[in-house]
Write a structure and sequence with these properties.
This protein is α/β, with parallel strands linked by helices and 258 residues long. 40% of the residues lie in helices and 17% in strands. It has helices at 20-26, 42-54, 74-83, 106-123, 135-144, 161-169, 186-194, 224-235, 239-253, and strands at 4-9, 32-38, 58-62, 89-98, 127-132, 152-154, 173-176, 200-202. Helix 8 (224-235) crosses helix 9 (239-253). Bound molecules: nickel (II) ion. Residues 8, 10, 38, 94, 205 line the site of nickel (II) ion (NI).
């Protein structure tokens, strides 16, 4: 059976303080062969670096989440640039727009989104995009910045099938996780039916968004087989094919060797 690649996790979160070491050590034995831990604030980027230094199957993404951009400065971007030089940093992220929380003000979010896209271009790494209730501005900015040349993934994809076309045209990947197993995820299921499997990667966004039957509990990469099942059923494929294709997609997205 092909192993699973969790392309988006937050194992630096305090939700894992109790048993982080034990849980992370158990992942490879349970078929989770690679994880990208994603930074969201300057602090979580530091913790991400500690994790990738400690576990050989953990890689990292360095970037500031839109909700944390109020703390960002030019000196901060310079620090991010230096961390992107780490041999296990595979992406800039997560970056983007969040109009659900709508903090800090949109102008500030947009400014640092564009600035970090520019950083990704300079350091030649793909981007991990966080976009919540900001479909139009995200698509407009990515188009204006020619993000197709940068490459990346729309993490926790939550928009329509119609919006998916814009990102497919840029050759972006789509991060799909626990939400796919939710009964009320009709819009997402329609989008995932439309998106070709060769543009889908698996992600947890843990500790958040645990799939059924563990919805509401702390999430971890160990729940990804439930997402594989849901994806296989929706696409009418066997689970092994979903594992194999999404593994290859993750390597292509993050430009990693097998
Ligand atoms: Ni995340």
């Amino acid at each position: 059976m092909t192993a699973i690649f969790d392309t988006h996790a937050h194992y630096d979160d305090e939700a894992f303080d109790r048993d982080r070491e034990e849980l992370l050590c158990s992942l490879p034995k349970q078929g989770i062969a690679r994880v990208v831990n994603v930074g969201a604030s300057l602090d979580s980027c530091k913790r991400t670096i500690e994790l990738m230094d400690r576990y050989d199957y953990i890689y990292g993404a360095i970037g500031i989440h839109p909700s944390d951009t109020a703390e960002l400065t030019e000196a901060g971007v310079e620090w991010l640039r230096q961390q992107c030089g780490h041999e296990k940093c595979v992406a800039v992220g997560e970056i983007g727009l969040d109009y659900y929380w709508d903090e800090p003000e949109r102008k500030i979010q947009k400014n640092w989104f564009v600035r970090q896209l520019d950083l990704a271009r300079q350091v030649k790494k793909p981007v991990i995009i966080h976009s919540r209730e900001a479909a139009k501005d995200t698509a407009d900015i990515l188009t204006a910045e020619h993000a197709g040349e940068i490459g990346g993934v729309i993490h926790c994809y939550s928009y329509t099938k119609e919006s998916a076309k814009v990102y497919l045209d840029m050759d972006f990947y789509f991060g799909i996780g626990g939400v796919l197993t939710f009964k009320n995820a009709k819009k997402l299921k329609e989008a995932v039916e439309y998106i070709p499997l060769d543009h889908i990667v698996l992600e947890t966004d843990c500790p958040y968004l645990a799939p059924e039957p563990n919805r509401g509990k702390r999430n971890s990469s160990l729940n990804l087989p439930y997402v594989v099942s849901a994806l296989a059923e929706l696409k009418g494929l066997d689970e092994e094919e979903v594992r194999r294709v999404t593994w290859d997609n993750a390597l292509k997205l993050y430009r990693m060797e097998a």
